[in-house]
Design goal:
alpha+beta; Methane Monooxygenase Hydroxylase, Chain G, domain 1; homopentamer; 7 strands; Beta Polymerase, domain 2; 7-stranded mixed sheet; 361 residues
Chain lengths: 361, 361, 361, 361, 361
């Protein structure tokens, strides 16, 4: 979790509720509004240079069709208010769209639209390789879908746009509810990339902890835990959200889309369970690490003890014959010196055998 | 959690229930009752010097309007009873208003009002920088709202009063239920300040624990944990409270205010989750800290072992040639002394290589 | 938890169910039955010397009134059976009254009375200062209330009796359901005394653990944890009990008493939450304590290492010039001895600087 | 948990479901079928030597009465099938009767009987003193009850039989549902014996851990934890079972028996809570134990450090005057030797004072 | 958990949902489709060499019968699509059949079939002995059942096929719902084998940890924990699945099969509880292991301390009489040398007694 992101926790106090304020990093990016219209038989895409371009249009030949307003950049209150005005969005909804700290949630508004907000997760480039959470908002109406995203990683929905443009698949044949599903699916699929990077980190930490020994291991484990906690907090609410979407029986979501939403929910559950399993394994790795430290200490202590136990008696023995007593019969013996060496050799041998027997060697 | 606050746990035993007793710090402050009346077209504010000034009044021209009685100071039973008498408040309700140990709750009284109590949290000035919980009570009636607060931090609701006075915003256009929301919003927004200070403390403890090493770290971690626990206990019930407020379908709360209450609830959830995440990270930091201590110990032990392993053999060798045997051929050798030095140099070198191989150096 | 209390876990096996057996400490105390009759206009109190005195009586002038049978001493099966016979109490109910190991519960009997059992907690006198749980049973009928208590701490309900006798308060004006509330309130208020003693113990352990260092700390922490666990197990069921009492919609309990019962429930919740917070902090204190031990060890090891690292080289140096080689040029130098001292002084200084750099000094 | 018992986890794979196989220890015991018939006015008991003796009989005078078939030994599939045939028991039910690994459960069969299975727990004799779980099955019909038990501990239901035979108590006056209760009560009462033995073990471990110090403590704690886990797993489902029995409103169980079943349920809850409290205390004891080890280590290290800190300087000093420099003025001083001793005495004293100041002595 | 398996977490991103992609290890195996038809009176089995052979056939004599399509190999999208086309299976269902990472679940499709997916667990051969999870899918229709399995362990359902072929048992007399049960039963029975291997590993780790001491113990414990976590995650959803199957009241599953499904559910519960108990014991073993390490360290330290405490004073004493003072009266004493030895002997003896008293010896 980048600290800057973790800091920006608070909208400014004492502003009247419903006041639109962008809560996020400063940026000079100009908001891009892309307007896409499609049904089974036609597809049309344009960059809206004026707000009027966002107004619902009639399809050629008056056919019913889906309008997708894809807004990149959520930092300009003026733009927000204009878009909100056209589609009659509640001021609290717009506040949530701009509040990058808003956690994932779903909300039904009585004005006939459904509001879904969640996070797109991706890793920034080396060297920091932090996980960055992009704030995504999706608003589903009867024949339109509005998506809001931050401007960081290019357009996160580009693959969907490509698919719509190139082939007449299920998305083209279905309404905006299926498009909502397709966007959710892209976002959730991206989570697997993050999951995979966690798996890699865990594997490498596992090797590091079990095989070798590094002082840094525990702070690495801690950093990974922090990222897991951060990610889990952002993904966890999706479970509730999707269940609610399926159960709510909202007229905006067709029953035919339910199996698809259930499928996304399955993926979310799988991700959460894997995150939990990782967290569990991480906790065990901490134990393994602490035990490794203790083992190292044990090994250091044994070395010290063996050295002491061998050399202390030897030093004592040579000390004895360094005494200056006038009457010390051994000193006069011609082989006293060699005898002393023998005694010392035996002592050393005895010690070594003792430590071997204690399995310290 | 300041100990004085943590101590004053108990109202005096064996008093008849419903007896009004102030449970809090002694104070000589004189209760201030501010009476504010407003609707879309007029605004009027006065300090009530007599209790009669609290009586509901007719607005100019007989318009329907909102009366807000804002009481600062909850330690005078006499004042409480008079206000309670005018608005027919239950004696248990008044007891809760004065009981600063009462945890946050919501209660509907059949006499047609709604009682909400919660805590305003703020940090006291340096050097103690403790978290202090001010006891707030809000009573919602059909066309009035009574707020009670302790007298510590000035008037916590001053920003709302300013907003009411200066501009005809949503609060002026809505009933006392919206005012209730606005007050809750101000209180909850204040929690973010506390949260931010926790975030800062955690970050600085993180640096302290991971980079350096201080004996004090664990008691700092413990102190932060204690504050987190204290804060969480005071915020946790709000979740239940707000959900109940929305679900209760009380005629006092208009449905139009629900989205706003949900918004406050979202903030409360976000705060609780962040607190939980902090608690989790704190627990991991304790592990990191304990492991750091072990690492330090390991390093100390290695130093000791290396010194011992190098100097014990050397001391033994010089001891050997300090012996006084009459027949010790080496002593007579002209280069014996230098040879001994060579042997010792090689021994030392061998040891150093051994420890390098063991990666202790 | 006194061990004697913790031991007496089991009624004797293989007795037919419903057989009345006293499960508790032996006692030679004679059961006292106090009969109190009151309504708003009269109050009468007598010690029942015969069982007949327990029979319901008519009030003077045939007024409706409340009869409170307050039984102190629950160890005499004969007395129990007689009282039980008069008020037609189920044999299992009487068994529970006498079974001091029965945990708190509420039970509705179809014969038109409500059975509530819970514990009065108090600390025994010094020096043991154990927590003792007195077994209390309350039986609520349409116009009577029977209370059973052990005979340990005098009459726990004396304050209520005083209040009834001296003033015509709410209790006198209400039925036996309000009396039930008043008794519950007295018992729960007593828990705050226990809570306060826990708070004091925790504070003093905190000081002991964070500031000083005692070998006994952990067993003190363990003893406190044991008491917290014991207390929590006895208080926890009250939460369920009181909720049930409010929800049950029993004709014996008037709706007007509900706010009072909710108030008691609030207190119970507050006590449980405080106990949980204490338990949490206790667990953290154990960590702090373990880390303190490690820190002490670290400090001991450093002292050892510093001594070794300074004196081992010195001892080696003086050992060198204690050798008896015939040709050792330094020995002949007139200033050799002083030079050696200088070398040793420099070595020592070097070591001290090294340890200062390592921040061990 | 005896390992043999813990091992026999699996019925042989790939047998058709419903195939009767005894899963338990081999035994050559011959199944005993005891047939007991009673009502308020008569009691009759016989050992069934042929299967026909199990057939329901008419009571003398055609009175309605209760038939209790008490089967000891569950390892003979042939016997099982015959009994099952007479009372039309489902093949899966019979499989569960013989499967000693089946965990406690309750099941209603549409053929008009109720199947309850649970465990009788007892400790084997010294020296192993393991906890053994005997598999008990109880089948309740409209006017009969069939009980199955293993043949280990004699007839576990003998006390009930005695009671039925000798006195016309509640059991004789009630139907088979009350008999079911009586049997459950006997089994649950037995659990208290196990609980008491756990309490004793915990107390003795507590003494062992807090006062003394044994290397074995932790494996004893582990063994106790293992037994607690094993026991809890076998008792835990009873809670659900009994609640279900009371709520199910099965015509086989009369409402008059409900208070008795609730009483058993109370006991089960009390047992489970005590087990949980024991587990909690056990976990704390592990902490205390680990801290005791650390304290011991601390004490060992201090001893070492004190010895080193005293003798290293002394050895250095005597080393100094063991040097052979030609010019060492001190050596010539007549009182040099005594002066050296004084210096050493002061050094030692200084060290002792230093360690006393550091509170190591 | 083999890492390769743990890695393959992700289907390729940005493919349109419903696109059939095999997610698993590459294989060149040719899919085998076995077609089995049976009822009480006939049994027929053939290997389908063309897809047409999968089409439902009429039984000889037009009897109603069960068709079981047993597909081994799930890696060929073409085959999947053909089978899916014949039985009108939803594209998301087919995606789940091929997605070996799909966790166990049950899903009802409105086209009149029921989809169940779960894992067959088995251990691979030595030396790796990893747990391998084979992805199994079962599709139940009104008169057919389609099973899909990976091609690893031969045909997992062979025992069922044998039973069907050789004897007219319950499976032959019942519909495809009973066959579904039989297949689930075989799979769940297999889990007991895994459970048993866990039990063996735990027992052997227990011996290893409690009796001896190995540096590897903790990584073995960690590896076992990892396998337990992996297994539990795959078995846990079955509980929910089976409960849903029983409660769903699906016309495809006859009520007569419910007791059998409940039986499987019982087994699943037993497995999960045993896994949880193992996990619990594992956590305790980690504590035991860490304490063993500490005990070893303690023992090492004691050895060191004893050696130091004995030899340091001795070395000091002999150092004293190695000094070269001119006036040292002891040196002149004829028995000085022997007196010194006596002093040293007494010192040593004193130390030994001291350590014996401290119970270090």
């Amino acid at each position: 979790m980048p600290k800057s992101q973790h800091r920006r926790q608070r909208k400014s106090l004492h502003t009247s509720p419903g006041t639109l304020t962008y809560v996020g990093e400063k940026t000079s990016f100009k908001t891009i509004i892309k307007r896409i219209e499609y049904n089974e038989s036609f597809y049309q895409e344009e960059i809206a240079d004026s707000i009027e371009a966002c107004l619902p249009k009639e399809a050629p030949g008056g056919q019913s069709h889906v309008t997708w307003i894809n807004v990149t950049g959520i930092h300009e209150p003026a733009v927000m208010e204009q878009v909100g005005g056209i589609y009659r969005l509640h001021s609290l909804l717009l506040e949530d769209v701009m509040n990058t700290l808003q956690k994932p949630k779903i909300e039904t508004y009585e004005d006939g639209h459904l509001y879904v907000t969640l996070k797109m997760l991706y890793r920034t480039k080396s060297p920091s390789k932090e996980i960055w959470a992009e704030h995504i908002s999706l608003i589903l109406g009867s024949d339109y879908l509005i998506s809001f995203q931050e401007e960081r990683s290019g357009d996160a929905f580009q693959p969907i746009i490509e698919r719509l443009k190139t082939s007449v698949g299920k998305t083209r044949r279905n309404g905006p509810d299926y498009l909502l599903y397709a966007l959710l699916d892209v976002i959730v699929d991206n989570y697997f990339l993050i999951l995979e990077s966690f798996g890699d980190q865990l594997d490498s930490l596992e090797d590091q902890v079990i095989k070798g020994y590094h002082d840094k291991s525990l702070s690495d484990l801690y950093a990974l835990k922090r990222e897991l906690t951060f990610t889990r907090r952002l993904i966890w609410p999706l479970r509730e959200m999707l269940t609610q979407l399926i159960r709510a029986d909202d007229p905006l979501v067709n029953k035919r889309v339910f199996p698809y939403l259930r499928d996304v929910n399955d993926h979310v559950m799988q991700i959460i369970e894997t995150l939990d399993a990782y967290r569990d394994l991480l906790a065990s790795l901490v134990d393994v690490h602490l035990s490794t430290i203790s083992n190292r200490m044990n090994s250091v202590m044994k070395t010290l003890t063996i050295f002491s136990a061998i050399f202390m008696p030897l030093t004592f023995i040579v000390g004895v014959y360094g005494m200056n007593f006038e009457y010390m019969p051994e000193l006069k013996q011609p082989y006293g010196y060699y005898a002393t060496w023998s005694v010392m050799a035996f002592t050393t041998l005895g010690m070594l055998l003792y430590f071997r027997w204690k399995k310290w060697l």
